[in-house]
Amino acid sequence: MTKRKPTANRPEAQEKPANPPDPQEATHKILAEDLHQKVTTLTETNRQLKRKIFDLYTIFEISRNFNSVLNYQQLLDTFILTSLAQVGSSKAAVFLRRDRTSDQLQLVKQRGSGPFPDENCCFKIESDLGRHLAGLNRPVRTSDIAGDMADDDEAAIIRIFHPGLIVPLIYQSGLRGVFCITDKMAGREFASDDVEFLSILGNQISVAIENARLYESEKAAAQQLRSAQEQLVQAERLAALGEMSAKVAHEVNNPLGIVKNYLLLVHRSLAGNEEAGNYLKIAGEEIDRIAGIVRELLDFHRPQPIKLVPLSVTQVLDDVLRLMDRKLENANIELTRDYHGECPMVKASPENLKQVFLNLIINGVDAMQPDGGTLS
């Protein structure tokens, strides 16, 4: 019987070693990963470049619109709405100086829902935070503002707009305002693109705001100048009218004196006729009133202080009503008097008060024409 030789040591029975890694394949894999990373980076860079181009174009168009808007309130509305739409937020506010000498930046325009600071809360140009924003000259996140940098009012405002951005509005190296924006849509954080966009837009709106304020100041100054010119023209007209009034008064005074003298003669000749005497008395009083009006024309040219004397208002009113008796009768107007008790004496100008009552009665008579009525 023939013995079999053991096969354990036979070469064909040993395991074949694994194939060594292909250096070329490993290199291809590394190159593919590197290429993928570069494509991803280029894609992101391309996206950011497109965003920057879009932002720059948007800012260019907005700046052109800003420069064409000289209405202050409309300008602020456009700025806030544009900022909200561009960065995807829903709440913002602008703080500006109320006047050129103020150190406080108060809330002047807001958009969105939720709480806003009251009018007493404000930023200060010369505060630690104000100087920090002026030196920074770019938007800063509310979370990056040191707690001891803001005073109580400023800290209260920052809490309302947290998390958000505080955008300084700089003009000629000085802080002229602050723009606060928050409530990013979908709870996202403000990206670097948002910060860059608001930084550029903040610089543009600062110039536009100063231009709009300057325009409003010039418009107000022009209006004051026009008003002063109108007052000057009116003063010249009044001066000319005063000179003419003086001439008219001088010409009227002479015939009035003659008429009054003849009335006195008639009154003496009718000494026994009481009714005629009353009529002559009324005529004489009215001549005196005309003379008083003439004196007023002279006083208009040479103003005199009004003399106030104690008088009875009801007595003055009765004198006017006696003068108007015939006119009221002809206009079919019934007159009723209702004097409550004893009217106290007052200090007034008799002629001026008589003119007031006369004007009121004449207006009442005219209002009841042509049917007449009752004058109380």
Write a structural description.
This protein has a six-stranded antiparallel sheet with strand order 3-2-1-6-5-4, with helices on both faces. The chain has a two-stranded antiparallel sheet with strand order 7-9. The chain has a two-stranded parallel ribbon with strand order 8-10. With about 375 residues, it is an alpha+beta fold. Helices cover about 60% and strands about 15% of the residues. The protein contains eight helices and ten strands. It starts with about 20 loop residues before the first helix and ends with a strand. The mean pLDDT is about 80.
Which outline best applies? rod-shaped
| N-to-C SSE string, H for helix and E for strand | HHEEEHEHEEHHEHEEHE
Helix percent reads 55-70%
Residue-averaged pLDDT, rounded? Answer: 81
| Estimated structural class | alpha+beta
Quaternary assembly: single chain
Cα-atom radius of gyration: 46 Å
Instruction: Describe the largest sheet.
Output: 6 strands, antiparallel
Strand order of the largest sheet: 3-2-1-6-5-4
